[in-house]
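#struct-help
A.M.: can someone run this one for me? Single chain, 416 residues.
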Amino acid sequence: MRPTVTGSATTYAPRWVSVSLSPRMKMGVFADLARSELAKLPENASRDDVRDAMAKAWDSVDNRLGGLVYDNLFWNKALKDAGLASVRSLGWNLGTVREVGGGLTDLAKQPLALMRGGKITLTHRGAYVVALPVTVGLMGGMLGYLMTGQVPQTLKDWFYPKTGRKDANGNDERVSLPSYMKDIASYTRAPWQTVKGKLHPAIATVMSMLNNQDYYGDEIRNPNDPLVTQAKQEAEYMAQQFEPFGIRNASEERQFGQSRALQAGSFFGLTPAPREVVRSSAQNAMEDYLRQRAPKGLTPEQAAARRTESTLRPAFLTHQPDAMARLRAAVAGGTLRSTQANTFLKSLAEPPTVGSFKALRLNEAVEVYRLGSPAERARWAPVLQQKLDRADPASYTPAEQAAIRRGLAAIHAQHP
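D.P.: on it. Structure tokens below:
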């Protein structure tokens, strides 16, 4: 895999993709758009009209399929070089903004055009915005049906198809398809984090190392460790940055016990759905409460222990034959202490999410319980009752006491 220059567009891809496959795909799509545009033009159309129509068609192809021709933007060379050096896949991300953002703008203009006596005009960008969710949804629905044998029941099932397995919390495992819908969902759900993720890998890595904080807010090196150990921790972090996404995702899928088909899908962009999508509304609220109180900046040792437990939990819950051997190896290797391993084994006896629910304060537990599904409420009801029996009103602020009363009233109204 090496940089390949095509025209004035630089991409990092295998040569057969950037020189052979991608240009042929772009020319095929452009041929269809050009044929459609030429059919719309009058027979006496001027050369300028034809050029304008062809330019719009090619810009749309550039936006959708990447390999952006930067010369068409007439950018200052220094500005272009600064953009390429600071943003991951500059042309790809710019194309997404131009096509999706421009399409939404074109569609928003149509009602105003009708009010002025004009007619509806569906541009390439507008048509793409309409077709994108439909196409991705249909692909997701078919994939979900192939994996589970069930027709999608909710909107989530179309865009994040189920795999037929359950995660450690008893939720349906889901996958995310490689499409611009992932970017749209990310910008909607966490815009600032998404923008930060678009930074050039070199810049993001240097900033993380200077701040001693990785993407998840954990420490890259433990300042209390010996200097040799700290150097090793930073070297390991640097090595991780050069690991291709496909290999990293496949490795994580293997640790979680996923099928070989899903592991292979990681190389083609078929990745696990975001945790916020997989979890229920109540579980997301519970995670938010716990995250606010969680200690900031875990040390590398603590982060490694947390990752090990998160991969071992589904292995034990799905009764994988090597689960206990992996736990013993983690203890022998020093990733987990014996006390941590024992605590982890005890937590497996509890129903999913009950341990997290126990860690909530009463006002938080009432709100999470109110958002829960019938199955979740059945698991959490005994814990909530214990919290109510042991509650000390003096330990809660007046605002928290009011929240508890409102939450209990809402629960009783829903289930008298």
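A.M.: thanks! The mean pLDDT is 83.
D.P.: also worth noting: The longest helix spans residues 15-40.
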